[in-house]
Design a protein that fits this description.
Layout (H helix, E strand, L loop, with lengths): L3 H6 L2 H30 L1 H30 L6 E12 L4 E9 L5 E5 L4 E2 L15 E7 L4 E8 L1
Antiparallel strand pairs: 1-2, 1-5, 2-3, 2-4, 5-6
Helix pairs in contact: 2-3
C-alpha cells in the first residue's frame, strides 16, 4: 500500500496546481526570452515593462507554489477515505469545488468541500459532471478540514 506522500503526489489536486504552475512559468519564460532579445535593441523602453510584468506574474506563481506546499505539508495527518460528491459549489475562473460526504477517522459522516479543481466546461480535463454520483478516493485532514482528491473509484 502506498503511503500518503505518494498518494498526494499522484492526486488530482497536485496535478491541477502543478499544470497551472507549469503554464504560468512557461509563459513567463517565453516573455523573458522575448524581452532579452528586445533588451539588445533598446534597453530603456523594454525594462519598465519587464519589471511591471514580473510584478504582475509573481503573485500567481507564488499562489500555486503555496497551494502545492499546503497540500503536501503534514501528509501524515491525512486519512484515506472515500466520498460521493452530491453538489457543486461555484468558484472563480469557471471552476467548481465538489461537496462530499465522507467518513472521518472516528467513523462519523462529515460534509467537506474539495479544492476548486473541477471545470464547468465539458472540454475541461476535470469536468465536474463526470464526477457527480461517482465515488472518489480522497485524503482528509480532520484538523484543517482539508480534502485532497486522489482518484475516481471505478
Amino acid at each position: 500500500m502506498k503511503n500518503n506522500k505518494d498518494l498526494i503526489k499522484e492526486s488530482l489536486d497536485i496535478s491541477y496546481y502543478g499544470a497551472q504552475l507549469a503554464i504560468i512559468c512557461g509563459v513567463a519564460v517565453f516573455v523573458y526570452l522575448f524581452a532579452i532579445i528586445l533588451l539588445f535593441v533598446d534597453t530603456f523602453k523594454v525594462l519598465p515593462y519587464l519589471v511591471m510584468y514580473t510584478l504582475l506574474i509573481l503573485p500567481f506563481i507564488a499562489y500555486y507554489i503555496v497551494k502545492i506546499y499546503s497540500i503536501k505539508k503534514d501528509s501524515e495527518k491525512y486519512i484515506l477515505t472515500e466520498g460521493c460528491p452530491y453538489k457543486r459549489e461555484p468558484s472563480l475562473g469557471r471552476r467548481v469545488s465538489l461537496m462530499l460526504e465522507i467518513k472521518d477517522g472516528d467513523g462519523e459522516t462529515v460534509q467537506v468541500q474539495t479544492n476548486p479543481i473541477f471545470g464547468l466546461s465539458i472540454l475541461s480535463d476535470l469536468y465536474f459532471g463526470e464526477h457527480i454520483g461517482q465515488r472518489l478516493r480522497v485524503l482528509y485532514d480532520k484538523e484543517s478540514e482539508r480534502v485532497v482528491v486522489i482518484k475516481i473509484i471505478e
